[in-house]
Amino acid sequence: MPVVAALQATPRIGLVGATGPVGASIATALANAGAPFACIGRSAPGLARAFAAQPEAELRTWNPDDPASIRGAFRGLETLVYMVGVPYDAFHLHPQLMARTIEAAAAEGVSRLLLIGTAYPFGRPQAALVDENHPRAPHTFKGQMRKAQEDVLMEADAAGTIRATILRLPDFYGPGVERSFLSDIFAAMAEGRRAKVIGPIDGPHQFVFVPDVGPVVRDLIAREEAFGRTFNLGGAGTISVREVAERAFRLVSAKPDAKPRLMVANKTMLRLAGLFDPVMRELVEMNYLMTTPVIMDDSALEGLIGPLAKTSYADGIAQTMAAATAALLARTRQAA
User: Fold this and answer.
1) pTM for this structure?
2) Residues of the chain with CATH 3.40.50.720
3) Average of pLDDT values for 291-311?
4) Which CATH architecture has domain 3-177+210-235+293-310?
5) Which residue, 41, 222, 228, 293, has most beta carbons within 10 Å?
Protein backbone atom coordinates (compact mmCIF):
# COMPACT_ATOMS: atom_id res chain seq x y z
CA MET A 1 0.00 0.00 0.00
CA PRO A 2 1.43 3.45 -0.86
CA VAL A 3 2.61 5.45 2.14
CA VAL A 4 0.00 8.21 1.80
CA ALA A 5 -2.84 5.72 1.36
CA ALA A 6 -1.70 3.79 4.43
CA LEU A 7 -1.63 6.96 6.49
CA GLN A 8 -5.06 8.05 5.34
CA ALA A 9 -6.39 4.65 6.44
CA THR A 10 -5.02 5.21 9.95
CA PRO A 11 -7.88 6.38 12.23
CA ARG A 12 -5.89 8.84 14.36
CA ILE A 13 -2.28 9.74 15.12
CA GLY A 14 -1.34 11.56 18.32
CA LEU A 15 1.85 13.59 18.75
CA VAL A 16 2.64 13.48 22.47
CA GLY A 17 4.84 16.32 23.69
CA ALA A 18 4.23 18.00 20.37
CA THR A 19 5.26 21.62 20.91
CA GLY A 20 8.98 21.17 20.26
CA PRO A 21 10.75 21.39 16.90
CA VAL A 22 10.58 17.65 16.21
CA GLY A 23 6.83 17.72 16.82
CA ALA A 24 6.49 20.60 14.37
CA SER A 25 8.44 18.67 11.74
CA ILE A 26 6.26 15.58 12.14
CA ALA A 27 3.06 17.63 12.12
CA THR A 28 4.11 19.27 8.85
CA ALA A 29 4.86 15.91 7.25
CA LEU A 30 1.52 14.45 8.33
CA ALA A 31 -0.39 17.54 7.18
CA ASN A 32 1.32 17.37 3.78
CA ALA A 33 0.24 13.73 3.51
CA GLY A 34 -3.36 14.54 4.42
CA ALA A 35 -3.19 12.40 7.56
CA PRO A 36 -5.40 13.46 10.51
CA PHE A 37 -3.50 13.96 13.75
CA ALA A 38 -3.82 15.34 17.26
CA CYS A 39 -1.18 17.39 19.10
CA ILE A 40 -0.91 16.71 22.82
CA GLY A 41 0.81 19.00 25.30
CA ARG A 42 0.57 20.45 28.79
CA SER A 43 -0.41 23.99 27.80
CA ALA A 44 -3.37 24.97 25.64
CA PRO A 45 -1.84 28.41 24.83
CA GLY A 46 1.48 26.72 24.02
CA LEU A 47 -0.23 24.32 21.64
CA ALA A 48 -2.18 27.15 20.02
CA ARG A 49 1.03 29.11 19.40
CA ALA A 50 2.97 26.12 18.13
CA PHE A 51 0.31 25.03 15.65
CA ALA A 52 -1.28 28.33 14.68
CA ALA A 53 -0.37 27.68 11.06
CA GLN A 54 -1.96 24.21 11.06
CA PRO A 55 -5.67 24.62 11.77
CA GLU A 56 -6.24 20.99 10.76
CA ALA A 57 -4.43 19.81 13.91
CA GLU A 58 -6.64 18.79 16.82
CA LEU A 59 -5.17 20.25 20.01
CA ARG A 60 -5.44 18.27 23.23
CA THR A 61 -4.03 19.04 26.66
CA TRP A 62 -2.86 16.50 29.21
CA ASN A 63 -1.39 16.30 32.67
CA PRO A 64 1.16 13.47 32.61
CA ASP A 65 0.87 13.19 36.40
CA ASP A 66 -2.84 12.35 36.14
CA PRO A 67 -3.74 8.93 34.63
CA ALA A 68 -7.31 10.08 33.85
CA SER A 69 -5.96 13.10 31.98
CA ILE A 70 -3.59 10.90 29.99
CA ARG A 71 -6.41 8.55 29.02
CA GLY A 72 -8.58 11.46 27.95
CA ALA A 73 -5.83 12.83 25.73
CA PHE A 74 -5.32 9.45 24.05
CA ARG A 75 -9.00 8.62 23.55
CA GLY A 76 -9.84 7.50 20.02
CA LEU A 77 -6.23 7.40 18.86
CA GLU A 78 -4.51 4.45 17.22
CA THR A 79 -0.86 5.53 16.98
CA LEU A 80 1.21 7.70 19.30
CA VAL A 81 4.48 9.46 18.50
CA TYR A 82 6.11 10.15 21.85
CA MET A 83 8.48 13.14 22.24
CA VAL A 84 7.94 14.09 25.88
CA GLY A 85 10.85 15.99 27.36
CA VAL A 86 11.78 16.46 30.99
CA PRO A 87 14.16 18.94 32.64
CA TYR A 88 17.78 17.94 32.18
CA ASP A 89 18.11 17.33 35.92
CA ALA A 90 14.95 15.17 36.09
CA PHE A 91 15.77 12.26 33.80
CA HIS A 92 14.54 9.81 36.44
CA LEU A 93 11.06 10.69 35.20
CA HIS A 94 11.55 9.20 31.72
CA PRO A 95 10.77 5.54 32.53
CA GLN A 96 7.97 6.55 34.92
CA LEU A 97 6.23 8.68 32.29
CA MET A 98 6.63 5.97 29.68
CA ALA A 99 5.02 3.40 31.98
CA ARG A 100 2.05 5.72 32.61
CA THR A 101 1.74 6.43 28.91
CA ILE A 102 1.65 2.75 27.98
CA GLU A 103 -0.89 1.94 30.69
CA ALA A 104 -3.22 4.72 29.56
CA ALA A 105 -2.70 3.92 25.88
CA ALA A 106 -3.54 0.26 26.40
CA ALA A 107 -6.63 1.18 28.40
CA GLU A 108 -7.83 3.40 25.53
CA GLY A 109 -7.14 0.85 22.83
CA VAL A 110 -4.13 2.63 21.31
CA SER A 111 -2.32 -0.04 19.36
CA ARG A 112 1.07 1.49 18.43
CA LEU A 113 3.70 3.84 19.84
CA LEU A 114 6.83 5.30 18.27
CA LEU A 115 9.38 6.78 20.68
CA ILE A 116 11.72 9.50 19.49
CA GLY A 117 14.88 8.39 21.27
CA THR A 118 18.47 9.53 21.64
CA ALA A 119 22.00 8.17 21.41
CA TYR A 120 22.31 8.19 25.21
CA PRO A 121 21.45 4.49 25.81
CA PHE A 122 24.46 3.37 23.74
CA GLY A 123 26.95 4.98 26.10
CA ARG A 124 30.49 5.42 24.78
CA PRO A 125 30.63 4.13 21.21
CA GLN A 126 32.44 0.85 20.71
CA ALA A 127 32.50 1.18 16.92
CA ALA A 128 33.15 3.91 14.39
CA LEU A 129 29.55 3.55 13.17
CA VAL A 130 26.83 2.66 15.67
CA ASP A 131 23.98 0.53 14.36
CA GLU A 132 20.97 -0.87 16.19
CA ASN A 133 22.93 -3.95 17.31
CA HIS A 134 25.51 -1.87 19.17
CA PRO A 135 25.49 -2.72 22.89
CA ARG A 136 23.35 -0.46 25.03
CA ALA A 137 25.82 0.08 27.85
CA PRO A 138 25.18 3.57 29.22
CA HIS A 139 27.74 4.75 31.76
CA THR A 140 25.82 7.95 32.61
CA PHE A 141 22.69 8.37 34.69
CA LYS A 142 20.88 10.03 31.79
CA GLY A 143 21.80 7.17 29.50
CA GLN A 144 20.60 4.66 32.07
CA MET A 145 17.26 6.43 32.40
CA ARG A 146 16.83 6.62 28.63
CA LYS A 147 17.68 2.91 28.39
CA ALA A 148 15.13 2.18 31.13
CA GLN A 149 12.56 4.16 29.14
CA GLU A 150 13.32 2.07 26.05
CA ASP A 151 13.13 -1.14 28.08
CA VAL A 152 9.71 -0.27 29.48
CA LEU A 153 8.42 0.30 25.96
CA MET A 154 9.96 -2.70 24.22
CA GLU A 155 8.97 -5.03 27.07
CA ALA A 156 5.38 -3.87 26.57
CA ASP A 157 5.75 -4.72 22.88
CA ALA A 158 7.09 -8.19 23.72
CA ALA A 159 4.20 -8.73 26.12
CA GLY A 160 1.66 -7.80 23.46
CA THR A 161 0.45 -4.71 25.34
CA ILE A 162 1.25 -2.29 22.51
CA ARG A 163 3.25 -2.42 19.28
CA ALA A 164 6.34 -0.28 19.69
CA THR A 165 9.29 1.09 17.77
CA ILE A 166 12.08 3.55 18.57
CA LEU A 167 13.70 6.10 16.27
CA ARG A 168 16.97 7.28 17.81
CA LEU A 169 18.43 10.63 16.79
CA PRO A 170 21.81 12.22 17.47
CA ASP A 171 21.81 15.90 18.42
CA PHE A 172 19.80 18.05 16.04
CA TYR A 173 19.68 21.58 14.68
CA GLY A 174 17.50 23.67 12.44
CA PRO A 175 15.44 26.85 12.15
CA GLY A 176 14.08 27.85 15.53
CA VAL A 177 15.75 24.96 17.39
CA GLU A 178 16.90 26.23 20.77
CA ARG A 179 18.01 23.10 22.64
CA SER A 180 21.03 21.99 20.66
CA PHE A 181 24.80 22.04 21.04
CA LEU A 182 24.74 24.35 18.02
CA SER A 183 21.89 26.71 18.86
CA ASP A 184 23.91 29.58 20.33
CA ILE A 185 26.13 29.65 17.25
CA PHE A 186 23.28 30.89 15.07
CA ALA A 187 21.90 33.32 17.64
CA ALA A 188 25.38 34.76 18.27
CA MET A 189 26.24 35.12 14.59
CA ALA A 190 22.97 37.01 14.02
CA GLU A 191 23.61 39.27 17.02
CA GLY A 192 27.28 39.86 16.28
CA ARG A 193 28.52 38.48 19.58
CA ARG A 194 30.74 35.66 20.80
CA ALA A 195 29.08 32.23 20.55
CA LYS A 196 29.04 29.90 23.54
CA VAL A 197 29.88 26.31 22.59
CA ILE A 198 30.89 23.15 24.43
CA GLY A 199 34.26 21.67 23.51
CA PRO A 200 36.16 19.99 22.09
CA ILE A 201 34.92 21.53 18.84
CA ASP A 202 37.23 20.12 16.16
CA GLY A 203 36.21 16.46 16.07
CA PRO A 204 33.63 14.96 13.69
CA HIS A 205 30.03 15.05 14.87
CA GLN A 206 26.68 14.10 13.43
CA PHE A 207 23.68 16.42 13.55
CA VAL A 208 20.19 15.81 12.20
CA PHE A 209 18.42 18.69 10.47
CA VAL A 210 15.05 18.74 12.23
CA PRO A 211 12.83 19.26 9.15
CA ASP A 212 14.22 15.96 7.81
CA VAL A 213 12.80 14.00 10.77
CA GLY A 214 9.09 14.41 10.06
CA PRO A 215 8.98 12.56 6.73
CA VAL A 216 10.92 9.65 8.26
CA VAL A 217 8.44 9.33 11.12
CA ARG A 218 5.53 9.59 8.71
CA ASP A 219 6.95 6.74 6.63
CA LEU A 220 7.79 4.57 9.65
CA ILE A 221 4.34 4.66 11.22
CA ALA A 222 2.83 3.76 7.86
CA ARG A 223 4.57 0.37 7.97
CA GLU A 224 3.54 -2.38 10.33
CA GLU A 225 6.90 -4.09 9.87
CA ALA A 226 8.58 -1.10 11.55
CA PHE A 227 7.12 -2.12 14.92
CA GLY A 228 8.88 -4.49 17.28
CA ARG A 229 12.22 -3.02 16.12
CA THR A 230 14.45 -0.01 16.73
CA PHE A 231 16.06 2.31 14.20
CA ASN A 232 18.76 4.97 14.02
CA LEU A 233 18.57 8.13 11.94
CA GLY A 234 21.90 9.82 11.28
CA GLY A 235 22.78 13.19 9.85
CA ALA A 236 24.09 14.14 6.41
CA GLY A 237 27.59 12.88 7.14
CA THR A 238 29.75 14.46 9.84
CA ILE A 239 30.94 17.97 10.58
CA SER A 240 32.82 19.70 13.39
CA VAL A 241 31.28 22.31 15.64
CA ARG A 242 33.98 24.75 14.54
CA GLU A 243 33.06 24.22 10.89
CA VAL A 244 29.40 24.88 11.66
CA ALA A 245 30.38 28.16 13.30
CA GLU A 246 32.64 29.15 10.42
CA ARG A 247 30.00 28.36 7.81
CA ALA A 248 27.36 30.32 9.73
CA PHE A 249 29.72 33.27 10.21
CA ARG A 250 30.56 33.45 6.52
CA LEU A 251 26.86 33.89 5.76
CA VAL A 252 26.62 37.08 7.83
CA SER A 253 30.15 38.50 7.76
CA ALA A 254 31.27 41.16 5.32
CA LYS A 255 34.87 39.91 5.75
CA PRO A 256 35.25 36.49 4.12
CA ASP A 257 38.59 35.80 5.82
CA ALA A 258 37.42 36.67 9.34
CA LYS A 259 36.83 33.95 11.91
CA PRO A 260 33.87 33.65 14.30
CA ARG A 261 34.42 34.54 17.93
CA LEU A 262 33.83 31.48 20.11
CA MET A 263 33.74 30.93 23.85
CA VAL A 264 34.56 27.24 24.26
CA ALA A 265 33.64 25.57 27.55
CA ASN A 266 35.62 22.46 28.38
CA LYS A 267 34.73 19.87 31.02
CA THR A 268 36.49 21.76 33.81
CA MET A 269 34.61 24.94 32.95
CA LEU A 270 31.33 23.01 32.93
CA ARG A 271 32.10 21.71 36.42
CA LEU A 272 32.80 25.22 37.67
CA ALA A 273 29.64 26.60 36.07
CA GLY A 274 27.73 23.71 37.58
CA LEU A 275 28.46 25.01 41.06
CA PHE A 276 25.92 27.75 40.33
CA ASP A 277 23.78 26.34 37.51
CA PRO A 278 22.19 22.87 37.89
CA VAL A 279 21.68 22.49 34.13
CA MET A 280 25.37 23.14 33.45
CA ARG A 281 26.20 20.63 36.19
CA GLU A 282 24.15 18.02 34.36
CA LEU A 283 26.12 18.61 31.15
CA VAL A 284 29.36 17.35 32.70
CA GLU A 285 28.54 13.64 32.48
CA MET A 286 27.42 14.02 28.86
CA ASN A 287 30.66 15.68 27.73
CA TYR A 288 31.84 12.32 26.39
CA LEU A 289 29.58 12.98 23.39
CA MET A 290 31.95 15.79 22.41
CA THR A 291 35.12 13.71 22.86
CA THR A 292 33.81 10.35 21.60
CA PRO A 293 30.68 11.17 19.59
CA VAL A 294 28.15 8.54 18.57
CA ILE A 295 28.04 8.39 14.76
CA MET A 296 24.88 6.54 13.79
CA ASP A 297 24.51 4.00 11.00
CA ASP A 298 20.99 4.26 9.60
CA SER A 299 21.24 1.63 6.84
CA ALA A 300 18.53 -0.48 8.52
CA LEU A 301 16.13 2.44 8.36
CA GLU A 302 16.97 3.07 4.72
CA GLY A 303 16.48 -0.61 4.00
CA LEU A 304 12.93 -0.40 5.32
CA ILE A 305 11.62 2.91 4.00
CA GLY A 306 13.96 3.58 1.08
CA PRO A 307 16.44 6.42 0.41
CA LEU A 308 16.55 8.99 3.20
CA ALA A 309 16.25 12.62 2.15
CA LYS A 310 18.88 14.49 4.15
CA THR A 311 19.52 18.20 3.94
CA SER A 312 23.21 18.94 3.44
CA TYR A 313 25.02 20.81 6.18
CA ALA A 314 25.57 23.70 3.77
CA ASP A 315 21.85 24.07 3.11
CA GLY A 316 20.81 23.32 6.71
CA ILE A 317 23.20 25.89 8.14
CA ALA A 318 22.04 28.47 5.61
CA GLN A 319 18.37 27.89 6.48
CA THR A 320 19.04 27.97 10.21
CA MET A 321 21.14 31.12 9.94
CA ALA A 322 18.45 32.84 7.88
CA ALA A 323 15.84 31.95 10.51
CA ALA A 324 18.02 33.30 13.33
CA THR A 325 18.56 36.55 11.44
CA ALA A 326 14.83 36.88 10.74
CA ALA A 327 13.99 36.20 14.39
CA LEU A 328 16.38 38.92 15.53
CA LEU A 329 14.88 41.38 13.06
CA ALA A 330 11.37 40.55 14.29
CA ARG A 331 12.42 41.10 17.91
CA THR A 332 14.04 44.40 17.02
CA ARG A 333 10.93 45.65 15.24
CA GLN A 334 8.73 44.54 18.13
CA ALA A 335 10.92 46.42 20.61
CA ALA A 336 10.94 49.60 18.51
Assistant:
1) 0.93
2) 3-177+210-235+293-310
3) 97
4) 3-Layer(aba) Sandwich (3.40)
5) 41
